[in-house]
Protein: HIT family protein
Organism: Phocaeicola coprocola
Amino acid sequence: MATIFSKIVAGEIPSYKVAEDDKFYAFLDINPLVKGHTLVVPKKEVDYIYDLSDEELAAMHVFAKHVALAIQKAFPCRKVGEAVIGLEVPHAHIHLIPIQNESDMLFSNPKLKLSDEEFKSIEERIHNAWEGKA
Ligand code: 5GP
């Protein structure tokens, strides 16, 4: 059965997409720790990120790097932190989180509740800052 992230990639479930190429897809986490919290997923359905080949994992990180640069441009921050957990959704993904402090990366923090308009505005700001956009 397709994962929820495969359904998002296929457009069967809506998402706030910030970047996409032929192999990867980046969209806003629906329960963000901070504004700009983004997920990067491979279009290929693999549960554990370290089951990707060396080449796929490297390419995923290069794609994530350019999304991170766009996030930082759109939401000025000290750094964009990267995290891999993957216990909730069995489809490999990288969390990209704009951070001012280490504590911004704590997944035990309360999640933001954002309106559709707020998500759309964040999506647009990051997408516009992404250098890979068409
Ligand atoms: P993890 O698997 O890394 O523990 O967490 C999965 C992440 O995916 C969570 O941060 C959660 O908020 C996010 N997530 C789960 N379902 C959806 C969804 O349907 N849409 C979006 N945009 N994010 C989701």
In short: Residues 4-129 form a domain with the HIT family, subunit A fold (CATH 3.30.428.10). The beta strands are 17-20, 24-28, 38-42, 79-83, 94-99. The helical segments are 4-9, 54-74, 116-129.
